[in-house]
Design brief:
Elements (H helix, E strand, L loop, with lengths): L1 E4 L13 H4 L3 E4 L8 H8 L4 E4 L6 H4 L7 E4 L9 H6 L3 E3 L6 H17 L1 H9 L23 E5 L3 H12 L3 E5 L5 H4 L3 E2 L2 H7 L2 E4 L13 H5 L5 E5 L8 H10 L2 E6 L19 E3 L8 H19 L9
Parallel strand pairs: 1-2, 1-3, 3-4, 4-5, 6-7, 6-9, 7-8, 9-10, 10-11, 11-12
Helix pairs in contact: 5-7
């Protein structure tokens, strides 16, 4: 079989090995493929039967012109880059990678929160610039330093990742409340399930771990921010469009929201006119919650297992 990886660099910038995929056939790996150039995508697919993609879109217009494709492996959990409806019509199996980064994404949400609470990077840089050496006192700080014990974290979306974040927050002495349409005993052991208005009204910290659905798009907006405590902190390392970025920027400017930290934005890579870039006390990281070496290694292992299952006639992790 011919196997093509259309955009392998993000998953493997050189610290992992594609060798395990070579046992299945002739492997060609492209670091990046133009996202909006169907001609280039088709040229690279060629006669390949097995295609792996992370963010390179496989639209109907591409799949229609690539009859050799039998299998598409999405190197991510989200699979909206593939027209799965058309793929199903054509008998193409599409798989994704579930649950590979659960723990590290929860860990990253807490890292964003702790950066807001202590601004460790800023103060380390200040020391390197000589500010501590020249300080008349034995210490200094440029931001309020925040203790989390006793404060309330409200988590919107309390699946696997939300529960990881909740367990860490609880270990730090926080009260955890959560909103999710699917409640379970594991969640109840960590948090009290409440409605959204309770999340907005009682939380000192609001964390987004919900999927992007029509009902969750823009869930952080001026109306819901108005229900929140003055000085609330907002964390999002789920999906960018969960936040109305103009509304959040204005709330940061007015100090209704004390601080925000996001690892995702509405359009990625971020555009220069994104209002959060100029908003005060807003931390933005470049969609890296998932990208620890261990989680990427796990992702690649699952991708190999998915392909092996397909080759053996028993596909797993199918979508669509």
């Amino acid at each position: 079989m011919k196997i093509v990886i259309l955009d392998g660099y993000t998953e493997n910038p050189g610290d992992l090995s594609w060798e395990a995929l070579q046992e299945f056939g002739e492997l060609t790996v492209y670091d990046r493929t133009a996202l909006n150039d169907d001609a280039e995508i088709l040229e690279r697919i060629g006669e390949a039967e097995i295609i792996f993609t992370n963010k390179t879109p496989l639209r109907e217009s591409v799949l229609r012109e690539a009859p050799a494709i039998k299998y598409i492996g999405v190197l991510a959990t989200g699979y909206n880059v593939v027209d799965v409806t058309f793929a199903k019509e054509k008998g193409i199996v599409v798989t994704n990678i579930p649950t590979y980064g659960t723990d590290v994404v929860g860990q990253f949400a807490i890292a964003l929160l702790l950066e807001i609470c202590h601004h460790i990077g800023h103060h380390s840089e200040a020391v390197s610039k000589g500010r501590w050496e020249s300080c008349p006192d034995f210490c200094f700080w440029d931001y309020p330093l925040i203790e989390l014990k006793g404060k309330t974290m409200g988590i919107i979306g309390f699946g696997r990742i939300g529960q990881v974040t909740g367990r860490i927050a609880k270990a730090m002495g926080m009260k955890v409340i959560a909103n999710d349409k699917y409640q379970n005993d594991a969640g109840k052991a960590i948090a009290k399930y409440v409605d959204l208005d309770t999340i907005f009204g009682e939380s000192d910290v609001v964390v987004l771990h919900c999927p992007l659905f029509p009902e969750t798009e823009g869930i952080i907006n001026k109306e819901n921010i108005a229900k929140m405590k003055d000085g609330v902190i907002i964390i999002n390392n789920s999906r960018g469009p969960l936040i109305n970025e103009n509304d959040l920027a204005k709330a940061l400017e007015s100090k209704k929201v004390y601080a925000a930290a996001v690892d995702v934005v509405s359009s990625e890579p971020i555009k220069g006119d994104n209002p959060l870039l100029k908003a005060p006390n807003c931390i933005i990281t470049p969609h890296i919650s998932w990208a620890a070496h261990e989680s990427r290694e796990r992702l690649l292992g699952i991708a190999v297992d998915n392909l092996r299952a397909f080759v053996n006639g028993k596909p797993v992790n199918m979508v669509g």
